[in-house]
Structure formats: C-alpha cells, structure tokens
Design a protein that fits this description.
The protein is 79% helix and 0% strand. It contains 17 helices and no strands.
C-alpha cells in the first residue's frame, strides 16, 4: 500500500512538473511573438504550481514590456538581488526612471554597475540622472564618468554625459573641451552644437557662441530654444536687427508658454530699442507685460513713451 501511494504521488508530481514546463514554454512562445498579454496568462498558471524567481522574472518582464512599471519593480524587488539577471536590473532601473523616482533609479543603477561596471549605456544614463534638477549631483556624474574613461575613453554615450555633467556643474571650460572633442569625432548633434554655443556664451566669447548657435538652428530649425539664445547673443553683440529676427522666430515656436513669451518679448523690445525703433520696442514690451507684470519694465517703457512725445 505504501509503495502504491508513493507511486501515485510521484506520478502526480511528474504530471504537474510537466504541465508547468508546458505552460512556461507556451508563455515563452507568446513572448517570442511579442504577445505579452497571453504570455502573462500562461506564466501566472505556472506560478500557481511553483512560485520561484524564474517565473517571477518572466512575469516582471511582461509587466515591463506592457509599461506596467510599478508591478514590474514590486515583483523584482522581492527577488534576492544575487538572483537577478542583467536584464532584470535594467528593467528596474528604467522602470524607476519612467515613474520619475530618481532616488530609486540612482540606487538600482549603482547596484547594476557594481556587477556590470562596463555597461556603458546604463552608466551614461545614470550620469544623466545625476545631472537632472531632481538629483543635481553632477559631481557624482563626473566622478563615475572619469573612472570609466580610464578604461574606455572613446565611448560616445559616456563622453556626452560627461560633457553635460561638466556643464551642469558650471565648469564651462571642461564642458566645452568635451563637446569639441565629440565634434572632432563627427558627433554633430543639435544638443552638442547648442551646448557649445552656450559654453562660449557663458565664457563671454559671443562671436564663437553665435557661430555654434547658428549651426544648431540650421540643424533643427523647429527647435525654439536655440533661436532664443541666438537672439540674446546677437543682442549682446549689438546686431539688433538679427536679434529681432531670431527672437521673433523663437516667439512663434514657443507660443503660448507665458513665461517664455515674457522673456522673449522683453529681450525683443531691448533689441528694437537698440536700433532706436522705439514704437516696435514699446509694442514688444506691451506684449511682454501681458504675460507677466514687471514694474521695472513698465517704468522703462513709460520713459521711452515720454521720449517719443
């Protein structure tokens, strides 16, 4: 009787194991066809038979691919970190990024890099997180970037992130050098050209700033920010007519952001005033005041109106 019961039990376990393997295989097949909806159904059935880290990882992967980032992280955090795959670490890192939880993203980025220090993609993205306003620790980005560059100094993603970190840290000379190095390697992105222009502007080299900001607007003429900065630089150089043209383009592209409209039209009025085009200056400042009240600007405008009489 004992041997009979044992045989029945072993037979039942074998059927269950076989059924679980079949369910997991069916889920894997769905994943290979990017059908995460049905894959989840198969994996959840398999999970009822044995809830180990392998099935949890597969389920979390489905959550990630369906942009259910909270469910993904909630599940993966329950698994021992030593059992997490490289892909699982990446999914946690990017999930927290998608949920705008920068502190957790930094933690998991560092956990991943402690195991895979040459993952340059994660390193560069972590450096970008360090440079954001939410974290604002560009010195940490510089530290990890320079450490990586001792081994691989030619990685474009890391060098871009390092240039950004220097810029955020207001080390404009180092940032400029890094962006120029990228430029020499034919990495001529809009962002690179724009930031080179800004570096020259902050270093009070306005002629060079204009060259690179002009290159940026030529690269992407629908992006307003470079037009605005170009207008500011042209104003500083005394090229008021060109400044008006750039600022007017920026205003059209930025419309209807009230804060930016105020800044642009205020600067536009200054450029018109620099050309003694007082009526246009007054019109521009009147428009600026519609977006934001500014007693100093209002007083300046009234003085200009009096001088016209």
């Amino acid at each position: 009787m004992f041997l009979l019961l044992a045989g029945i039990l072993l037979s039942h376990l074998g059927i269950s194991a076989g059924n679980r393997m079949s369910l997991m295989a069916s889920g894997d097949s769905c994943v290979s066809h990017y059908d995460y909806f049905h894959a989840l159904q198969y994996y959840r059935q398999a999970q009822k038979q044995l809830n180990d880290f392998q099935i949890q990882t597969k389920i979390a992967d489905c959550y990630y691919c369906r942009s259910d980032f909270k469910s993904c992280t909630d599940l993966l955090k329950k698994i021992d970190e030593d059992s997490l795959s490289h892909d699982a670490f990446r999914e946690i890192f990017y999930s927290y990024g998608a949920m705008k939880q920068s502190g957790s993203q930094v933690y998991w980025g560092n956990q991943l890099l402690s195991r895979y220090p040459m993952d340059s993609k994660i390193l560069a993205d972590l450096m970008h997180v360090y440079s954001t306003d939410d974290v604002l620790q560009p010195q940490n980005a510089i530290e990890v970037g320079l450490k990586y560059c001792k081994t691989d100094s030619e990685n474009i993603d890391v060098n871009r992130a390092l240039a950004e970190a220097y810029f955020t840290n207001r080390d404009f000379n180092s940032s400029l050098g890094q962006y120029q190095r990228l430029l020499q390697e034919r990495d001529t992105t809009y962002s690179g050209l724009y930031h080179i222009g800004l570096c020259y502007q902050y270093l009070d080299q306005m002629d060079s700033a204009r060259v690179y900001l002009q290159a940026a607007v030529s690269r992407y003429p629908t992006y307003p920010v470079a037009y605005y900065m170009l207008g500011v630089v042209e104003n500083r150089l005394g090229d008021f007519s060109e400044s008006c043209t750039s600022l007017e383009k920026a205003a059209k592209l930025y419309l209807p952001d009230p804060t930016l409209m105020y800044i642009i039209y205020k600067c536009l009025g200054q450029s018109y005033a620099g050309q003694q085009k007082n009526s246009q200056a007054i019109d521009s400042w009147t428009t600026a005041l519609k977006y934001q009240d500014d007693p100093d600007l209002r007083s300046k405008m009234e003085e200009l109106q009096q001088s016209n009489k």
